[in-house]
Design goal:
Elements (H helix, E strand, L loop, with lengths): L2 H7 L3 E7 L2 E4 L2 E4 L1 E4 L5 E7 L2 E5 L5 E5 L2 H10 L7 E4 L3 E7 L4 E7 L4 H8 L8 E5 L13 E3 L4 E3 L4 E3 L2 H7 L14 H31 L16 H8 L3 H12 L6 H10 L7 H7 L1 H6 L5
Parallel strand pairs: 10-11, 11-12
Antiparallel strand pairs: 1-7, 2-3, 4-5, 5-6, 8-9, 9-10, 13-14
Helix pairs in contact: 6-7, 7-8
Amino acid sequence: MTLCAELLDGKYLIPAAELLRTIWDDDESHEIYDAVYADGSLHHFYRSGSGTVEVPEDDLKMFRVSFRPFADVVRVGLNCTGSIAEKLPGKIWVLGAAGQQRREVYLVRNWTDNACSLFLQDSAVKKGSLIIHIGKRPAQDKFDDNQVYALDTMIDFDGVNFLFDAQCVFDNLKDMVASRPRNTRKKSLPAQKEYQTKVENILKLWFTWKYENAKRQKNGEMLTTPGITLTFNNQKELAEIADVPEAAITRMKKVWENDLLGSGWGYYLILRELGKVYTDFIDFYNEHKEYMKKIGIEY
């Protein structure tokens, strides 16, 4: 099953009734026109400098994204009790209650939208609620940082389903009290830092092993076998080897990607090589030597 089919099956994508009426080709926009053949079949074409081009109908299909299934994913991840209720169509859902303090949980999309902001500022929404948001958070709101979580940093796709990593929420909930939520997110940060250190060490060992064997192969020497298991081809397998949540790697990947001037970019570059059919590790090192040196790999 293709990713598109899986998203359609999960109702994350909803087919639109209409088809695209323009298409891009060679940096130009072309209008689509239809033709009905003698057998009654409908065909789609556009004209370009190279002539008339037929377009398969599948290439013209449009979809809209449905955020409602994410409410189910978050609700399951947080073990919420109670039913899901849509408060603002397509923008705000209340997912029930989570934790020993039975805090209300909201999934919010487009929080900076005026209607969303006004709804969440209303006194009917308890100040101690948990907010999971899709998109940006407003510059000001009534919630403490340890009650607010960006969905994209806590969700992962395992190839079949979306999974919500609720561990840091649970870590915070252990010490939060209804009357005065404390900023306990720091409790989860050491765990993430520990995960990141483990993964970085493994990636460094993996690349060093691959590089050394590339040199040995080039010189006709016997290849070495690492003392620990370093066989992984993707992020999920890396998480299993490192014994860390896969969502933790997703979070650290965002940190690495934004660390262009530090060591993070080097780990991000190595991570991108996982699962590639062929990588010339010697050429890779020479091309990215500056970043490899920053993470302690130097030849």
